[in-house]
Amino acid sequence: MQILVWVFEVLFISSLVGVLPLSLAETTSPGVCSEADRAALLAFKAKIVKDTTGILSSWIGRDCCGGDWEGVQCNPAGRVTTLALQGPVKDSSMYMKGTLSSSLGSLPFLQVLVISGMKLITGPIPDSFSKLTRLTQLVLEDNSLQGNIPSGLGLLSHLQTLSLAGNHLKGPVPPSLGNLRNLGMINLGRNSLSGPIPTSLKNLHLLQSFDLSFNSLSGFIPEFLGQFRNITFIDLSNNQLSAHLPISMFNLVSLSYLSLSHNLLTGTIPEQVGNLKSLTSLSLSSNKFIGHIPASISRLQNLWSLNLSRNGFSDPLPDVSNRGIPSLLSIDLSFNNLSLGTVPKWITERQLSDVNLAGCKLRGSLPRFTRPDSLSSIDLSNNFLTGSISTFFTKMTSLQKVKLSNNLLKFDLSELKVPDGISSIDLHSNQVCGSLSSILNNRTSSFLEVIDVSNNLISGTIPEFSEGLNLKELNIGSNKIAGQIPSSISNLIELERLDVSRNLITGTIPMSLGRLANLHWLDLSINRLTGRIPTSLLGIKFMRHASFRANRLCGEIPQGRPYNIFPASAYAHNLCLCGKPMPPCRGKKQETSQ
């Protein structure tokens, strides 16, 4: 879903290219840069104490308008009109460290100011930015800016784009932002803003994109949202908004994306939801909605993603005809008060990519899908499904993730024939038997990253691991697996999480386990392991959780972080483990006393 949000925002910003200031597209050679503007830029550079992007290293020489100063553009008079510094968000090694200089407020001809993805730019947004009265775009995304949003930004009357997302801003949304009557996009998401959505924002009649997600906003969703006739994107998810949905919202015939998930919203979905004829994605998950899902939802001809999970919706589901919701690709009705019994035909008989019906009181055998080749992800966990799995995956050639945990499935692992491209299998808490070698062998796909078969009836031993596997999570806990942990465990070089707890495993902990540099979760508890905890584990630098409890281990616990600061309960009920956080070893105690 985050990818979808990103696509919407990129498309919106791209659409503004046609309305950007002429200076961005001018072919006329700019003049020599103003000395005052050059000084303002150098004052900004001076406040950046570290720049691993290398952008500011190009800011040398007298002429900031000659094209050599990266991110700087000027008009023919030599005045700076654009400052656009964008870092790669996903590359943690590329950043700027420092603060925003108030000197940028002394660039009177600036029309575009973009400083985004720099990660370590801290401190407040300078009040001086309120003097940039020609500004049409202000984008300060994905930094570490702090403090309140300056109310003076409401003076930037020409502003069309305002994005301060992905920072550490707090306090209220300033009511003064309601003065920005030319605003087409506002994104204040992923901060720590609080308080209500100010009523003054009703003046933003040109708004097309409205994102306040991932904050701590409270109060209700304002009725005035229904006045934004041009709006296509609304994301108010992950806040503390309450009360009913305003009926006016369902007049927004241009609205394409609506996410109100993870709030405290109550009441029912009104029948008027069928009026949102442009809607492609609707997410109302993790709220407190009740009642029936309205039949009018079948009129949404463009809807391809529907997420109503984790609410209190009750039976019956609407009777959707073959022509209803014709564009639907992804549906999530998990964890409501639904007692479906079987999966409705209007779900099994259409071409879907994602089906999520966890906790819907499904019973009987696993469902058969008419178009299994289109399925990418299936979650039927927390139901009462029974029987075998032998033919379930037939023709599911596109399947990547499957979750069938917490059911009553009863089969041998040798019956499990999964598609080659699958990346995640979760079968925990069923009645699965057989040996792990049926799914972990030299034919195991390199695409497979997650296996969870915990809390079943699996027996046998842990097989040898061949090279080339890309497993990141292996959970085989709470079974009847015996034998030793093979030293070839070190071949799982991508492994981040390993749980073999509550089995019958014997032998010693292999030294080779210390080669799993990415491991951050390790649970070996409640087995029959003997010997020492190998010091090679000290080579795992990012371990956040480890448990060796209830084995037959003895000797000194590796005396280095994090093992010597884990709680004593992680080592309890062994034969004779000693050293921090347990009591000191005898030999060590004698040496100390000498």
Structure report:
- With 594 residues, the protein is mostly beta strands.
- Among the domains are: 31-218, Ribonuclease Inhibitor (Leucine-rich repeat, LRR (right-handed beta-alpha superhelix)); 234-335, Ribonuclease Inhibitor (Leucine-rich repeat, LRR (right-handed beta-alpha superhelix)), CATH 3.80.10.10.
- Helices cover 6% and strands 21% of the residues.
- It contains 4 helices and 38 strands.
- It has a 21-stranded mixed beta sheet, with helices on one face.
- The longest helix is centred in the first third of the chain and has 14 residues, at 2-15.
- The relative contact order is 0.04.
- Residues 13-28 and 590-594 have low confidence and may be disordered.
SSE order and pairing:
Layout lengths: L1 H14 L19 H12 L1 E4 L20 E3 L5 E7 L9 E4 L12 E5 L2 E4 L14 E3 L6 E3 L12 E3 L4 E4 L13 E3 L4 E4 L13 E3 L4 E2 L15 E3 L6 E2 L13 E3 L4 E4 L13 E3 L4 E4 L13 E3 L4 E2 L16 E3 L12 H4 L5 E3 L6 E2 L12 E3 L4 E4 L13 E3 L4 E2 L14 E3 L23 E3 L20 E3 L21 E3 L21 E3 L6 E2 L13 E3 L4 E5 L19 E3 L7 H8 L1
Parallel strand pairs: 3-5, 4-6, 5-7, 7-9, 8-10, 9-11, 10-12, 11-13, 12-14, 13-15, 15-17, 16-18, 17-19, 18-20, 19-21, 20-22, 21-23, 23-24, 24-26, 25-27, 26-28, 27-29, 28-30, 30-31, 31-32, 32-33, 33-34, 34-36, 35-37, 37-38
Antiparallel strand pairs: 1-4, 2-3
